[in-house]
């Protein structure tokens, strides 16, 4: 356990239920650049070649689109047990108690609902996958960078993650007219592994994938464009997090991002900023992206998540 009492170490994977399974698998294992490492009866596990995680995306064939779960790592089995007991004592609804995990790499973990009804998994002792260094000009994801979640009650969701899981606030984007729009939350020196966005309903905002560098990020973005996939926003560079961004839609309307150079900060000295979202240099320092507007924002609201407070079947 860290000196601050934080028990989570990093983001492991994001799991999606998809009605158009074959099309989604072709997208993520094809033009997006992930590697299918296992498949079983309509469930595919997709890894990033540069990551020691067994997989960073899981796709499950289902009749309805939903976010199945977000998975985080812990350093030790004892930390998993400690967190489970802590959450239970705090009245958090557990889906399962700590036990052996029967997915690629195994491990020891448990699941629970967050305040908005999303399924969260925490695990330790997952076997590391053999991975490799991503080479120059190789425009495929190195690892999972972060996940952004829509919440209709931004303050409540932020407070829940701070209180129960030890997340710390890095920065906030605020509108002069609409108030707080996005909170960037961290569990390490990485500027954020999760962000919470103000939305009309609970849903997935986007999943972000780290590229080797700026050249690889641009090459990957260009590959998606040449393949005819719809670009929502980018290429540009955010102020909060200082990372490059290009956002696309996957075949079933989930937003996915190529990014690189996300800021590493000194947690001992960092003080959160509040940035004015209406300033163009806040959303894009370079000025190269198409302007942020209501249509782009609405796309990122995604569909209402039908999986709130309903545990995924696997």
Automatic annotation (TrEMBL):
Pfam families tied to this protein: Glyoxalase
Metal-binding found in the keyword field: yes
PANTHER family associated with the record: METHYLMALONYL-COA EPIMERASE (PTHR43048), METHYLMALONYL-COA EPIMERASE, MITOCHONDRIAL (PTHR43048:SF3)
InterPro entries for this protein: Glyas_Bleomycin-R_OHBP_Dase, Glyas_Fos-R_dOase_dom, MMCE/EMCE_epimerase, VOC_core
Transmembrane segments: none
UniProt protein name: Catechol 2,3-dioxygenase-like lactoylglutathione lyase family enzyme
Family matches, as SUPFAM superfamilies: Glyoxalase/Bleomycin resistance protein/Dihydroxybiphenyl dioxygenase
Domain of life: Bacteria
PROSITE patterns attached to this UniProt entry: VOC
Positions of the VOC domain: 10-125, 143-261
Keywords assigned: Metal-binding
């Amino acid at each position: 356990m860290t000196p601050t009492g934080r028990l989570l170490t990093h983001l492991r994977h994001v799991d999606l239920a998809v009605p158009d399974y074959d099309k989604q698998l072709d997208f993520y294992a094809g033009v997006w650049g992930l590697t299918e490492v296992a498949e079983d009866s309509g469930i595919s596990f997709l890894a990033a070649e540069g990551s020691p995680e067994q997989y960073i995306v899981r796709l499950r064939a289902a009749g309805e689109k939903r976010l199945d779960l977000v998975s985080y790592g812990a350093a030790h089995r004892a930390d998993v047990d400690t967190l489970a007991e802590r959450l239970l004592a705090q009245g958090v609804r557990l889906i399962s108690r700590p036990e052996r995990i029967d997915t690629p790499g195994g491990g020891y973990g448990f699941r629970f609902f967050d305040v908005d009804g999303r399924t969260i998994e925490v695990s330790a002792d997952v076997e590391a996958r053999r991975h490799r260094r991503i080479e120059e000009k190789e425009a495929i994801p190195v690892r999972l960078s972060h996940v952004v979640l829509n919440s209709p009650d931004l303050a409540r969701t932020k407070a829940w993650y701070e209180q129960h899981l030890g997340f710390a606030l890095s920065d906030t984007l605020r509108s002069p007219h609409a108030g707080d729009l996005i909170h960037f939350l961290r569990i390490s020196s990485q500027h954020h592994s999760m962000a919470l966005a103000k939305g009309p309903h609970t849903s997935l905002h986007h999943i972000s994938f780290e590229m080797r560098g700026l050249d690889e990020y641009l090459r990957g973005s260009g590959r998606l464009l040449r393949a005819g996939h719809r670009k929502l926003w980018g290429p540009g560079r955010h102020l909060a997090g200082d990372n490059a961004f290009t956002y696309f839609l996957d075949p079933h309307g989930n937003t996915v991002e190529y990014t690189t150079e996300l800021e590493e900060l000194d947690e001992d000295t960092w003080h959160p900023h509040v940035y004015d979202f209406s300033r163009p240099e806040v959303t894009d320092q370079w000025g190269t992206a198409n302007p942020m507007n209501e249509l782009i924002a609405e796309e990122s609201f995604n569909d209402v998540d039908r999986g709130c407070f309903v545990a995924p079947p696997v």
